[in-house]
Amino acid sequence: PEVHALFEELRANPKVAPPKSLKAVLRPYQEVGYSWMYKNAQLNLGSLIADDMGLGKTLQVISLLLKFKEEGYLDAQQALVIVPTSLLTNWMKEIAKFAPLLNAVTYHGAKRKLSKKADIIITSYGIARIDLNLFNQLDLYCTVIDEAQNIKNVNTAQTEAVKSIEANLNIAMSGTPVENRLAEYWSIMDYVNPNYLGSILDFTESYSDPIEKDNNQNRLEAFRKVTAPFILRRLKSDKSIIQDLPDKIEQNYEAKLQAIQAEIYQKIVQDTLRDLARFKDDKKKRQGLILKLMGGLKQVCNHPYQYMNTGGQGPEQSGKGQILMDLLSRIQHQQEKTLIFTQYRKMGNLLLAWIKARFGMEPMYLHGGCSRKQRDEMVDAFQHDKQQTIFILSLKAAGTGLNLTAANHVIHYDLWWNPAVEAQATDRAYRIGQKKNVQVYRFITKGTLEEKIDAMIQSKKALADRSVSLGEQWLGDLSDDDLGDLLRLS
Question: Which residues neighbour 409 within 8 Å (Cβ) at sequence distance 6 or greater?
């Protein structure tokens, strides 16, 4: 009866007045999210806010922290916010803008000092792990983790460190709470409300295996019911949530392999199939060879130079390169802005050279080697400088946390084969603040593994839409027959 009464109280979600000093007007769905987290907090329960990327999760959580401040919860205790390094600046700016009453400090860098007077301490996942003992000396009212998929892997030192930091209350934020397996969801929920879903073994037996392996709808429904009170997920595509966001129009652009690409492609396939025959009974070796093969073929589809490191470097050697130059010419003529995503640093450098040669301007290029300061300067320049019309971005360095609504064209030069990662990148432009329809172009080389894997992913989307998205590891477990079909040029 007590548990039932608690669940009923959680479901009845009356609006809570926003903080008096908040310098923003919450949209109706943001007010619901903020009220929901506040209500959970009053019951000493954590929350996972999993709104679609770009719906303003940060503002909702800042509103909650400000409410805690106004009600005295942060007088004797503090709040700790853990984020990817790339989001440290963003959090400080958002707090300064919307909640200047909050005394927030960043704890990062070589000369970092821990303030016991600040209301909010903002740090990175890496520092949380390194300085775990220091954080455990603080008296924390709550911890917040942004991009919570950073603790999706159960047994890593980073996940264990974050979960071991003690506070009255834990709040997680993630636009993609499950990227690959339900075990990731368990890990995040185990942080939000420890032990609520039992041990990982219990969870696997009760939910993961029946849902993922057997497609058991009863278990799926039970899973949804048991987790519903503690996760809030709204989608941008739901017009009842947000009416003033423009449309997102996605289209595949098909490229043809050039002769040099086809020749290299065939040779890689033949060499790898010969090697696979030698390791038929060694599953680990076989899986490694297949994944290496996939990576090599993706690079050839991008541009032969990316794989070979020799030969011509111009766009004419690549079907994708030719399509890109033609597409960019049309967009540039319209005087609109474009984001180009690639997962390869070398490919980004080729794109840089092509654009400079064709348009006489050097686009910015954000990759893993850029400092936080450089990243912030590039984002600011792209958003406000009319001369900056093309922005090349590494998928890993720029897939999350950036607001690039100045662009209304998004080009995926190569696909990650994980729909969640691709969507995160697209949502740098497709988010609140976007005034134009967003055109998304997915480059796929016709007749190659790119086209075939994309078709496989689309056919498995039903699984992804049930809360599980696909990673790339499954490719390594393909049977010989499936592999043969996948690699055959058509």
Answer: 331, 336, 337, 338, 339, 429, 438, 439, 441
